[in-house]
Amino acid sequence: MKSIHLRKLLAVMEVKGKTLLDKTYIIMPLFSIGFALLMRFMSSVYMESGKMSPSTLANCVIMNICMCSIFCVAGSLAEEKEKHTLRVLMTSSVNGMEFYFGSVLPVLMESIVVNTLLPFITGLSMTVMQWGCYLLLTTLSSLIGTIVGMLIGIYSKDQMNASMITTPFMLVLLLLPMLNGIHPILDTISSLTFTGVIMDFANQISINAHPFQINSIIILIVEIIIATVLFLVLYKKNGFEAND
Amino acid sequence: MNEIIKLNHVSKKFNNELVLKDINAILHKGEILGFLGPSGAGKTTTIKIITGQLHQTSGEACIFGIDSKNIDETIYEQIGIVTDMSGVYERLTVYDNLRYFSKIHGVDKKEINILLERVGLLEHKNKLASKLSKGQTQRLVLSRAILHKPKVLFLDEPTSGLDPSTALKIHQLLLELKSEGMAIFLTTHNMEEATKLCDHVALLNDGEIVEFGTPHQLCLKYNTEKKYHVLLDDKKEYVIHQTREDLSQLNEWLLENRIETLHSCEPTLETVFLKVTGRGLE
């Protein structure tokens, strides 16, 4: 097990944080915030109650996790490979663990901040219990998103390649919870993904049921374990450059 | 420890094709060792093996006495690498690129400006790395590689494609670093550069070291056909061979004080390489 040097971790985090401010990446969290604002405006104009449904919040959160956690992590790793800076880091005494956490933590923090803002933007009120469950589920889901982003980044040769892999993948994740009513199989698949778990949570809130479901937590933890194992297997093969 | 790098019967196969064959070499502290050869001779592969980015098929490659297969970040903290695949962070300024690596290596920020001055990039410190010319980018990459004062510097074709003035500045910097005790492992196909910089050179052809020695030794070794270039006062040029007739003619010109310039025509490293391998360097 490699040790993590705080100095190197903070250095990688700082540069990755700056990368997130670039126009390519800063727009990603703005999509979900913009979508939430638009939906709030439309609800106030077209809905009788003027309130948004919890499922709309769930859609905004899923969009944020896909855009921030998956796209930003995959894109920034692919960019490091394309610009040949990843190899420089690895031969400059930054180890895989430092690079992994340095890359993932800024995105995870950004994702958590946006997830926390979204209920306020949508104007959806939640009880303390609901807030607790919401933060736990969305944070675990964002973590899964970042690991999936790393997996895609490892496979991608460059940014174009990363975006070609990420886009259909994100579409499936976004659409599954919306289309789960079409067929029972789709419903089952959806319930086993983190996007489905978030939608189920929203459905529980909308019917005022207890929001904490142990099944959801188990699904998310299993997904984290599977994604981490897949990541470690790929990383062991050839570091962050599986396609070299 | 004086012995920085030791290659002991190193071979490397890619898909059953032998790209490095029984490579032996030693690099000491304060020395420049040149691996010379045309593209595809195995120069970059050798650097990758020594720096642990590739594993050799057989033999032993040691750096600071440690097998390069077991290289870790404690070794990487003591080396600097410059290759054509060394990228820079284009969104960051020149200064911020170095600041990033100063944090990674735990180097005082004050060193950055000193180094930028040394490589002639101080006036460009606030320029985005994406806006630099090729020569400036190469100097930035070089300054990043020496920021933490490594014990050994790996340079893979450091002046390839650069203008003569930038190449000259880089040569001067390398000689300064050498005089400060840094060991330098240089790969190049520029024989003039190797003659000027290297203490020892290995001529590499098809993955095999075909000659090893100091540039001077190698040139003398292949100086079999001794001849001299003469420029007379009437601006006529002659090549004098080591024959009785030619030498008496030379003697005559000397006595008559007709010789403006007289140079021995020992082979250059390039002609030695051509002689040994029967092929050019490009």
Automatic annotation (TrEMBL), chain A:
Entry GO terms, CC: membrane
Parts of the chain that traverse the membrane: 20-41, 61-78, 99-122, 134-155, 214-235
InterPro entries with a match to the protein in the record: ABC2_TM
Gene Ontology MF terms in the entry: ABC-type transporter activity
Key words, A-Z: Membrane, Transmembrane, Transmembrane helix
Residue span(s) of domain ABC-2 type transporter transmembrane: 55-232
Membrane topology, from the record: Multi-pass membrane protein
Pfam families: ABC2_membrane_3
Localization terms from the record: Membrane
Protein name per UniProt: ABC-2 type transport system permease protein
Organism the protein comes from: Longibaculum muris
Automatic annotation (TrEMBL), chain B:
PROSITE patterns for the chain: ABC_TRANSPORTER_2
A Pfam family of this chain: ABC_tran
Gene3D superfamilies, A to Z: P-loop containing nucleotide triphosphate hydrolases (3.40.50.300)
Keywords from the named record: ATP-binding, Nucleotide-binding, Transport
One GO molecular-function entry: ATP binding
InterPro entries hit by this protein: AAA+_ATPase (IPR003593), ABC_transporter-like_ATP-bd (IPR003439), ABC_transporter_ATP-binding (IPR050763), P-loop_NTPase (IPR027417)
Chaperone among keywords: no
UniProt domain ABC transporter: residue ranges: 5-231
Protein name in the entry: ABC-2 type transport system ATP-binding protein
Species for this entry: Longibaculum muris
